[in-house]
TrEMBL record:
<feature type="region of interest" description="SAW">
    <location>
        <begin position="472"/>
        <end position="546"/>
    </location>
</feature>
<feature type="compositionally biased region" description="Polar residues">
    <location>
        <begin position="81"/>
        <end position="95"/>
    </location>
</feature>
<comment type="similarity">
    <text>Belongs to the GRAS family.</text>
</comment>
<dbReference type="GO" id="GO:0005634">
    <property type="term" value="C:nucleus"/>
</dbReference>
<keyword id="KW-0804">Transcription</keyword>
<feature type="region of interest" description="Leucine repeat I (LRI)">
    <location>
        <begin position="174"/>
        <end position="234"/>
    </location>
</feature>
<feature type="short sequence motif" description="VHIID">
    <location>
        <begin position="284"/>
        <end position="288"/>
    </location>
</feature>
<keyword id="KW-0805">Transcription regulation</keyword>
<keyword id="KW-0539">Nucleus</keyword>
<feature type="region of interest" description="Disordered">
    <location>
        <begin position="81"/>
        <end position="101"/>
    </location>
</feature>
<dbReference type="Pfam" id="PF03514">
    <property type="entry name" value="GRAS"/>
</dbReference>
<dbReference type="InterPro" id="IPR005202">
    <property type="entry name" value="TF_GRAS"/>
</dbReference>
<protein>
    <recommendedName>
        <fullName>Scarecrow-like protein 13</fullName>
    </recommendedName>
</protein>
<feature type="region of interest" description="Leucine repeat II (LRII)">
    <location>
        <begin position="334"/>
        <end position="366"/>
    </location>
</feature>
<feature type="region of interest" description="VHIID">
    <location>
        <begin position="253"/>
        <end position="318"/>
    </location>
</feature>
């Protein structure tokens, strides 16, 4: 379990890093899919898939050109291999001629992850229509919606009848979301033959250099391949790209930090409520479970310096992992030195204490809380990485919340993505991931024009591996486990917390922040929390507890 936590990818928390370097149009890292032959060993549960290869690993992650080392289809039904890499700018054909793939229509499909019977029936009907369009009206589609070609099993024969020339002509008329869902359905049912054919179709539809949904589709397709070809830690090791040098990674994070408000929303809303909670405290101890560059606290130190009656003494404990250390190019001492200089310039008494470990490893003794300190705890996009009771009997997610409660904090701030992927089975989780990240990729695209290589690197290093992790991995190796605010409310309440209302001051601060971004971002004050929205989709929530 701890190993999987160490493998955490940059993710949305990569947005937190302040840009400190000029953008360097560096070469791309590529996933190359090497020569492979496969065979299915699907058991009664339909989840055990085995493959053999003369080259060992199917995925190699390197910085060379993605023009060699790939297998071309002998038959679309015989292999899930690709002759191109979704992580390459040469990734795939574009479908921009299809109006359904235009920027104005990549989000808001009927597949919103709803569990209602109506939405379920719509989804089943759409997938059935897609299957008929691919195979013709004579295909045998079961009433269960599982799309097995022959009841009780699947056969290769129907795929032998596919007219691939005709299929290539049909592709511009296909809906990319529908094909992705049909492919995920095939993977979910271990229908290797059908998955192979649909992956071949998807290869012609997705592109890391295309429209937002095409870019997302490239990474989701890679996740589906990884789910079939590998398992567990092998998947994550294979997909853990050879990390770029820290200055490049900082640049990629900085790009997203500037064009998307997700992290600025987090620390702006949290700082307002923290300042209110410690308004009259002479000594405060801030415990940040994802301190990254420490940028959030520069602003808070400056605000506290202006407090009537003088600033408090600030004791800051920063928890961090190896991912952020690599982006910084060094340990937490860099953060401590930076913040100490800021505090000194503002005449704020300051002490920094580093806890260089993953959050799930933190124990009470690591925090060094002193008597008389008003404790503040910050959880910015980090608790969803902690394994809960569905993954590990230690249940570090609830353990951390209870541990923090034992400190009797003045305030606890929580910011999380508003998505439900923690305990959902694979196919509903795929639908939720597609719906959520379609909105996110659309919001990234709305952030302004940028160099294609810069955007590909930023999306790959900071977002894509999170997506692949949610699709390809299970159990302890799946570290991206988001929950909705309602579930976080239940966890905090069970630990003895009461929700602290985020009022008009926090709302006003976030609204002022969003003036710098696209008009389709908005904030709503709801259920004593703040919801950051992209169009009609809740993207993140900020809440406070005491």
């Amino acid at each position: 379990m701890q190993t999987s936590q160490k493998h955490r990818s940059a993710g949305i928390h990569g947005f937190y890093h302040q840009p400190v370097q000029e953008i360097d149009p560096y070469g791309l890292s590529h996933i190359q899919i090497l020569d492979k032959n496969m065979y299915s060993d699907a058991g009664s549960q339909g989840t055990s898939i085995s493959f053999e290869t003369c080259l060992g690993q199917f995925f190699t992650l390197e910085s060379s050109s993605a023009t060699a080392g790939f297998v071309v289809y002998d038959s679309p039904a015989a292999s899930i291999s690709s002759n191109r890499s979704p992580f390459s700018s040469q990734g795939s054909h574009s479908c921009v001629s299809d109006p359904r793939h235009s920027p104005e229509n990549i989000y808001g499909s009927p597949f919103s992850g709803s569990s209602s019977a109506d939405d379920s029936n719509i989804l089943r009907q759409k997938l059935r229509e897609l299957e008929i369009s691919l195979l013709g009206p004579e295909s045998d589609i079961t009433d269960s919606g599982s799309f097995c070609f022959v009841s009780g099993g699947y056969q290769a024969e129907p795929y032998a009848s596919w007219d691939w020339n005709q299929m290539m002509e049909m592709i511009p008329r296909l809906d990319l979301k529908h094909v992705l869902l049909a492919c995920a359905d095939a993977v979910s049912n271990a229908d290797i033959q059908r998955a192979a054919g649909l992956m071949h179709v998807l290869d012609q539809m997705v592109s890391v250099s295309g429209e937002p949904l095409q870019r997302l589709g490239a990474y989701m397709l890679e996740g589906l391949r990884a789910r079939l070809e590998l398992s567990g830690s092998k998947i994550y090791r294979a997909l853990k790209c050879e990390a770029p040098i820290s200055s490049d990674l900082m640049t990629y994070m900085g790009i997203l930090y500037q064009i998307c408000p997700y992290w600025k929303f987090a620390y702006t809303s949290a700082n307002v409520v923290i300042r209110e909670a410690v308004e009259y405290e002479p000594r405060i101890h801030i415990i940040d479970f994802q301190i990254a560059q420490g940028s959030q606290w520069i602003l808070l130190i400056q605000m506290l310096a202006c407090r009537p009656g003088g600033p408090p003494a600030v004791h800051l404990t920063g928890v961090d992992d190896s991912q952020s250390a690599h982006a910084r190019g060094g340990g937490l001492d860099i953060v401590g030195q930076r913040l100490s200089k800021v505090a000194e310039s503002c005449n704020v008494p300051f002490e920094f204490h580093d806890v260089a470990m993953d959050g799930c490893e933190v124990q009470l003794e690591h925090l060094r809380v002193q008597p008389g300190e008003a404790v503040v705890v910050n959880f910015p996009y980090v608790l969803h990485h902690m394994p809960d009771e569905s993954v590990d009997t230690w249940n570090h997610r609830d353990r951390l919340i209870r541990m923090v409660k034992s400190l009797s904090p003045r305030i606890v701030t929580l910011v999380e993505q508003e998505s439900n992927t923690n305990t959902k089975p694979f196919f509903p989780r795929f639908i939720e991931t597609l719906d959520y990240y379609a909105a996110m990729f659309e919001s990234i695209a709305a952030g302004g024009s940028m160099d294609v290589k810069q955007r590909i690197n930023a999306e790959q290093q900071c977002v894509a591996r999170d997506i692949v992790n949610m699709i390809a991995c299970e159990e302890a190796e799946r570290v991206e486990r988001h929950e909705l605010l309602a579930k976080w409310r239940s966890r905090f309440t069970m630990a003895g917390f009461n929700q602290y209302p985020l009022g008009s001051s926090a709302t006003t601060a976030v609204k002022d922040l969003l003036k710098e971004y696209h008009r389709d971002y908005s904030v709503q004050e709801r259920d004593w929390a703040l919801y950051l929205r992209w169009r009609d989709r809740d993207m993140a929530t900020s809440s406070a507890w005491r």
